[in-house]
Amino acid sequence: MPPNPMHYVSLLIEFLRGRPRVVFWTVALTQAVIWTLVPALFYSAPPGEVPLLLAVGHEFMLGSYLGPPLAPWLGEIAFRAGGTFGLYALSQICIVAAYWAVFTLGRRIVGTRHAVLAVLLMIGISAFTVPTPNFGPAVLAAPFWALALLFYWRAIGDGERGNWFLLGIALGLLLLANYVGLILVALLIVFTLVTPAGRRALTYPEPWFGGVLFAIVIFPHAVWLWYARELVYSGLQDSIVVVAGRLSPGLWLTLTLVLTHLGLALLIFLASGWPRKPRERAPEIDRRPVVSFARVYVFVFALAPALIAIAIAFVTDRLGPLDRITPLVVLSGLAAIIAGGDKALIYRERFVSYAWLGLLIAPPAMVVLGLALLPWTFKTELAIAQPANAEGRFFGESFERRTGKPLEYVTGDMRIAPLVALGAPSRPHVYFNWAPERSPWAKPEDMRAHGGLLLWPLADNTGAPPAVLKSQFPELVPEVQRSFRRPVQGFLPLIRMGWAVIRPAGQ
């Protein structure tokens, strides 16, 4: 018989077998560097609701209509320290911390090499890649969610009772980041009460002291929430559904959860080698058997949060804090690895390696290409291509030349005003004239006393301000409209903006 040909084993498999920790840190830090540099170099404006988040964080309040205060606070601190680069770096620190928590939890349950495989699969979960520069409550909640699951397992699964204290702090910070953490808190309570290990743990004092720490962490915000519950409730009514048609929030959330796992499903499908030849060989990465309690723990906390979130969306017909799913899927990779058995057979590892590298590199490359090509092809206007710094600098300097004072207040369009506030040298306060109750730190009287800037987009040549703005500031006199070019203008029209200066009292 002819000798069997030597089987090809990729470099990634060899590193997984010999240096799994090196693989983990290389993968996690590489992704962090990519998604820090790409938006820092190519975005001319922060994505999504980041400008509004920073407008709220600039005031350092105990809460807002956006929810808990931790994300606005940390976002504002990062922006003051490093501008948008600091903000994007903070997002990736959150993602790396979530990866580390999943990796550390996986090492205790499935061993180091399979824990690395779980993190590698998380690259295929789009919630941890493309949306991460959009820093907000969901991105910040992901590491606290993962850390809480790690500390809870150490406490209840490994018997390290001191971790109850860390769990209480992690859960408190999770609720200060995102109200979606209530799902995890409720699940942990139920899991503790229905499992023998959980009930046994309650006979010791550490879980109760951990509960006290949890209460101390959330107490100031809880007091604020009691008095501002109507404001927060109005914010929770906001549903962000971007799918065309009339999908209900529950269907939208279900579809989003499925689509965000397509990359993970692709990697699993390629690694299975189907359809494969009967004698086709595959490198094998084994592990110690997983105990049944650990298996139940991972499956419950990988599946139940998403199912509960879907049920809430169907019942309430609102998304609220569920419009970003990042914390709900932190255990998807580890659950897939446990479901795959004690021996991970990676067929056609060369194709798997290429596919994984594509999932890492293709999304940021597509973002860069989209920024460069879409204005020339489909005449598509991207929010991240707005010239925020140029707009903020022009309006801030124009106000100071006219009044001799730095710009302190800005209001007008819901999208433009927060962007200009970020780019203005003086970082003015943003008055939400579209919803005054959501900006209690500013009032029209403040703008009349200290001066301010009114901004609105122009849809025609008249330059007339919106009726709502005119009713709030009847004394406004529109200035000559201003146009701005985008970094890549293409075939798009210039950005045309109307504006007016409210001079300080006495001028």
Short description:
59% of the residues lie in helices and 6% in strands. The chain is mainly α. It has two domains: 11-140 and 238-367, no CATH class; 386-502, no CATH class.
Separation of the first and last Cα atoms: 99 Å
Largest sheet: 5 strands, mixed
- Domain module tally: 2
| Cα-atom radius of gyration | 26 Å
Detail the poorly predicted runs. 1-6
Strand count:
7
| Beta content | 5-15%
Kindly report the average pLDDT value.
Answer: 90
Number of helices: 20
Give helix and strand order, one letter per element, not per position: HHHHHHHHHHHHHEHHEHHEHEHEHEE
Q: Helicity, in percent? A: 55-70%
What is the molecular shape? globular
Widest sheet: strand ordering: 4-3-5-7-6
Which structural class do the helices and strands define?
mainly alpha
What does this structure look like?
This protein has 507 residues and is mainly α. The chain has 2 domains: 11-140 and 238-367, no CATH class; 386-502, no CATH class. The chain contains 20 helices and 7 strands. The chain has helices at 11-18, 20-42, 50-57, 70-110, 112-122, 137-156, 163-177, 181-194, 196-201, 206-227, 229-236, 249-259, 262-272, 292-316, 332-339, 349-377, 388-403, 416-423, 444-450, 467-472, and strands at 284-286, 343-345, 409-412, 429-430, 452-457, 482-484, 495-502. A 5-stranded mixed beta sheet has the order 4-3-5-7-6. The protein has a two-stranded antiparallel sheet with strand order 1-2. Strand 3 (409-412), helix 18 (416-423) and strand 4 (429-430) form a beta-alpha-beta unit. Helix 2 (20-42) runs parallel beside helix 5 (112-122), helix 3 packs across helix 18 and helix 12 runs antiparallel to helix 14 (292-316). The longest helix has 41 residues, at 70-110.
